[in-house]
Amino acid sequence: MNTERHFEYGAALRSFIHEGQYLDRWIDFKSFQVFEEATTYTALQFFTRSRNPSVRFALAPDGALSTDWRDAAWHVPYAELSTGDDTWVFLPENERRLVRRLSHECLRLDDPLVTIQIFQGLITSADHIYHLKRLRAGLYESRAKRGNARQIEIEDAIMRPLISGTEADRYAELETELYLLFPYESNERGMSLLSAIELSREFPLAWDYLRQHEQELRDREGGSFDDEQWYRFGRNQNIDKQNLPKLAVAQTVQHLEVSCDLQGEFCLNNVRVNGILCEDQDNLLFLMGILNSPVPDWIFRRSSAPKSGGFFEANKQFIAPLPIPHAPIADKRWVGTQALELTALHGRFRQLIWDIEHRLEVCDNEKRSEDWLLPAVGSIEDWKRRAPEMGARLRTQWAKEKRSRQLSEELASLQMRFSSPIQLRPHLANGELSIESNGVVVIDHVFVSADEGAFLLAQWKLSLWDLASGAAPIASKVIDLLRNVKLSGNTVLKAQVVEMTEQASTVRNRIDTVEQELNDRIAELYHLTPDERALIATV
Questions:
Q1: Looking at 79-158, which runs of residues are DSSP E strands?
Q2: Following DSSP, what letter does each residue of 356-410 receive, concatenated?
Q3: Which DSSP state fits 269?
Q4: Nearest one of 79, 78, 73 to 96, comparing CA atoms
Q5: Is 165 in contact with 252 (CB distance < 8 Å)?
Q6: pLDDT given for residue 439 in this prediction
Q7: Which among 300, 246, 298 has a CA at the least distance from the CA of 275?
Q8: DSSP sequence for 293-312
C-alpha cells in the first residue's frame, strides 16, 4: 500500500524505518489500479538490512515504469524525511527545493499566527435521521426510513443549512437544500444540548420527529446513547464552531476548493468538509484567496493521498502544513477584496449556468454522428461505397471496420493536438463551428444552418466550460459531449439561451482576468522566480 507514508497512522512505522534507514527504493503507482479485483493504492517498497543514505523513488501513475535508479534527482536523503507525524513527500530535487524554500520562508496553515483552528464537520452517527431536504418553509423531506422519502413538518428555527463537499466549491456563494436538525442552543457556555422539556415546549414538531426514531437513536454504537440525552449527536467536537465565520474546505477534490461562510450561517457535514477559523474577516478572505491559488494547490496535490479518478484527500493532515506567505496588511486586504469579488462572480456565473440548463431541460435530444464533427471518419454508407466487390453482408462488415479504424485514428490525432493546461474555445463564423485549443484550431469544418448556429455555439460553450479543469481532456469525451445537441422550435427559448450564454461568457472572462491578477500578486508574495512559476504551472 502507498498510504503509510501519507497518513498519521503510519507515523510509528515511518519512525522505525527512519531510525534504521532500511527503505532503499519506493515505486509509487499513485491512483493507478494495479489489480482488477479490488480498488487499492499500490506501492512497491524494497528494504535492506544495511542503512541507506537516501530513498530512491519512482512514480508510475499510468502503470509504466521507466527510471534510472542512479539519477540523484530522484533520491531523497533521510535527512529530509520527517521523524515526526508529518508525511513523507517523495519529489524530484527541483520540486523538493521549492517545497523546502517555501516551508522555510512561510508560515504553516495551522500556525497560530495564521489560523485559530482547523476542524472537521459534525458527526451525528445517524445522518439519515438528522439530515433532511428543505422543500419550503416548515416542510422537509426525510429519508430516515432507510431511503423511503416522506414529508415532515418541522420548525425552521431548529434547522440549520448543512454544507457537504459538493456545495463547498472554490469561491462558492454557499447554498444548499440539505438541512440539519440541530437540537442545541448557543449560550454563555458555548453550545448546549436542549433538554427534552425545552424541545417539547419550543419545538414540538421536531421533538415528535425525534421521538419517532428514539429507539434507533438510543441503539447507536451498541447502546452507547441509551440515556436521557439519547437525541444528541454522535460526537460533541466542533458543535460550538458551526455558527462562527469560517472557511469551508471540500474534502475529496481534484484541486483545493475553498469557500467562505462569513456570517457563520452554515454547518459543515462530517469529514466531507473541513472548517478553518481565523481571527477576523480580513484573514478569512486572505486565506480563501491564497488557498485557491496555484501554489498551495500544487503542493497539496504532491503531498496528499491520491484517490482514484485524480482525486485527493484535503483533510486536516494534508492542508495543515501548506505554506502561507507573509503579507503586509495592505496586501492581505487586496487579496481578500479580489477573493470576495471572485465569490460574487462565481455566484453570478453559476446562476446563469443554472438558468441555461433549466431551459435546455425542455429541449429535444439528438445524438449526431461522429463524422459531423470529424468529416474524415465518414458514414457507414460512405465506406460501403468505397468497398471492393463483395457480398452485401461482407461489405457492411468491411465498412464498419474501416470506419471504426478511421475514428480511432482521428481521435488519436485530436488527442495529440490537445495541450495542457487546456483551454478549448468554440467559435462560429460564416456558418462554420470550430474549436481552438490554446489558439490552435483542433476541430473545424462543422457547418450549420443560420437558424441553429448560435444555439449550438451556446451549447458548446456550456459543455466546454465543464471541461475547464486544467488537464488535457480525453478526445473521445469531448466528441461525445459536442455531438449530443439540444433542439427546440421555441425561438424565445433559443434566444434566451444565446443571450444568457453571452452574459456567462462575459462573467467568465472577468473571472479569468481577476484570477490572473490575483495569482500574479500571490506569486510575488511567495517570491517565485520565473523558473518556479513555470514549475508551479505543471499539472
A1: 107-108, 117-120, 131-136, 139-145, 148-153
A2: HHHHHTTSEEEE--GGGT-GGG--HHHHHHHSPS--HHHHHHHHHHHHHHHHHHH
A3: B
A4: 73
A5: yes
A6: 82
A7: 246
A8: SHHHHHHHHHHSPEEGGGEE
Which pLDDT value is given to residue 202? Answer: 97
Which cell goes with 262?
462569513
Q: What is the DSSP letter of 487?
A: E
- Closest to 315 (Cα-Cα) out of 256, 363, 266: 256
Cell of 340: 470576495
CA distances (Å), origin 107, targets 111, 314, 331, 526: 6, 18, 16, 11
Task: Determine the straight-line distance between the first and last CA of the chain, rounded to whole angstroms.
Answer: 24
pLDDT in tens, 162-204: 999 888 999 999 999 999 999 999 888 789 999 999 999 999 9
DSSP character for 251?
A: S
Is 346:511 a contact under the CB 8 Å cutoff?
Answer: yes
pLDDT at 420 over 70: no
CA atoms of 6 and 89, how far apart (whole Å): 8
Residues 47, 20 contacting (CB under 8 angstroms) = no
Q: Cell 510509528: give the residue.
A: 12
Cβ(123)–Cβ(168) under 8 Å?
A: no
**pLDDT level of residue 2 (50, 70, 90 thresholds):** very low
Separation CA 508–CA 349 (nearest Å): 7
Q: What is the DSSP letter of 473?
A: P
- 76-125 pLDDT, tens per residue? 889 888 776 667 878 888 898 999 999 999 999 999 999 999 999 999 99
Q: Which three cell numbers stand for residue 394?
A: 461482407
Beta strand residue intervals within 19-66, DSSP E: 23-28, 43-47, 54-59
The pairs formed by 534-537 with CB atoms below 8 angstroms and a separation of 24 or more are 535/94, 535/95, 535/98, 536/98, 536/294, 536/295, 536/298, 537/294, 537/421
Say which residue the cell 418553509 belongs to.
137
Tell me the three cell numbers of residue 370: 461522429
Secondary structure element (H or E) that encloses residue 367, with its range: strand 364-367
CB-count exposure of residue 194 (10 Å: 0-12, 13-18, 19+): buried
CA atoms lying within 13 Å on the CB side of residue 501: 24
Q: How far apart are CA 339 and CA 330, in angstroms?
A: 14
**Which run of H or of E encompasses 184?**
strand 184-187
pLDDT per position as a tens digit, 273-292: 999 999 999 999 999 999 99
Residue 74 to residue 55: CA distance in whole angstroms: 8
Backbone angles phi, psi at 255, to 5 degrees: -140, 155
